[in-house]
């Protein structure tokens, strides 16, 4: 996908602030620090569009990026970041759930899970949640550059088993470092971002 044009339309906290448009949207969810903003930057071929950080909890709002005037990417705050207060975590969760449940324009979600680790409880509940609301999901196993190629299958099967993925459910290895998986993710997005 050739990305000619990207702009951050809005950082939203509530539905009233979501862009007033019928364009399709793809949201990116996953634990704090799993690599959401990095994956978005890779797909957008921009280094610093979505802000990344080695400190978890960088992204705190729903950030709507308009891509090629044709679709939106939504960078969602990472869940499960222990250092924010319980109240702030509950507010994040409510904000994310409100978006995922009510947004008509949402065509699919890319859920990021660290390829080096088994899914956590929070990864599992997010996946269950998306399946329950029948949101199409692509699981991306991130930071795959840190996993030996001989272990990729093991990483995939541990995610499939841990998340309870069904045979037709999709999993893709991804690296923001060497861009593994970017074409597959883009193809999935193009198929699902229908407003
Ligand atoms: P929050 O906004 O806090 O939820 O984090 P995030 O999920 O947006 O993560 P972010 O993209 O900021 O990346 C977190 C850290 O992981 C940064 O130090 C990145 O450089 C690193 N990282 C992200 N993707 C990759 C990857 O594919 N490979 C490697 N080796 N490191 C990565
Ligand atoms: Mg982020």
From TrEMBL:
GO BP terms: division septum assembly
InterPro entries with a match to the protein in the record: G_ENGB_dom, GTP-bd, GTP-bd_ribosome_bio_YsxC, P-loop_NTPase, Small_GTP-bd
Pfam families reported for this sequence: MMR_HSR1
Keywords: Cell cycle, Cell division, GTP-binding, Magnesium, Metal-binding, Nucleotide-binding, Septation
Gene3D superfamilies registered for this protein in UniProt: P-loop containing nucleotide triphosphate hydrolases (3.40.50.300)
EngB-type G domain sequence ranges: 22-195
GO molecular function, one term: GTP binding
Cofactors demanded by this protein: Mg(2+)
Function: Necessary for normal cell division and for the maintenance of normal septation.
Family recorded in the similarity comment: Belongs to the TRAFAC class TrmE-Era-EngA-EngB-Septin-like GTPase superfamily. EngB GTPase family.
NCBIfam families linked to this entry: GTPase_YsxC, small_GTP
HAMAP family named in the record: GTPase_EngB
Protein name per UniProt: Probable GTP-binding protein EngB
Biological classification of the source: Bacteria, Bacillati, Bacillota, Bacilli, Lactobacillales
